[in-house]
Give the backbone structure.
Amino acid sequence: MPTVRGCNLPDDLLYDVDNNIWYRDNGDGTVTVGMTAVAAAMAGQLVAFTPKKAGRPVQAGKSCATIESGKWVGPAKLAFDAEVKEANAALAANPKLANSDPYGAGWLVKVQPADWAAAKTGLVTGTAVAGPYESKMAADGFAGCQ
């Protein structure tokens, strides 16, 4: 698993580095979406998670959820067109899960991509993500995860 500036980035995931979002192919036509450890560290302790409802379409570059911490409020943007299939009710009840377990219990939503094969080509594989993330952290002036 790549670790960049103390931030774990599992190599079995795909990443949208610019938006600090990870994707896991569930093998059933759906994809689990989450925020990276980098995003969780930059945002600080999450206090609210407001996902789009199941059945809602989301266009590429648009928000599938709103994330709020003590110092930041912003969108979790999808890298591709999709339909929300499920939102993480446990995360809505306890937003801190995204900080403590960003790649497990802290996932955001499950979506069904309009064209997953095409969508994957625009994402970075976990095995190749260290370089792009090092560059992004340097550009953002982010020291790393604690």
Remarks:
- The helical segments are 37-43, 89-93, 97-100, 116-120, 130-140.
- The chain has one domain: 3-126.
- The radius of gyration is 14 Å.
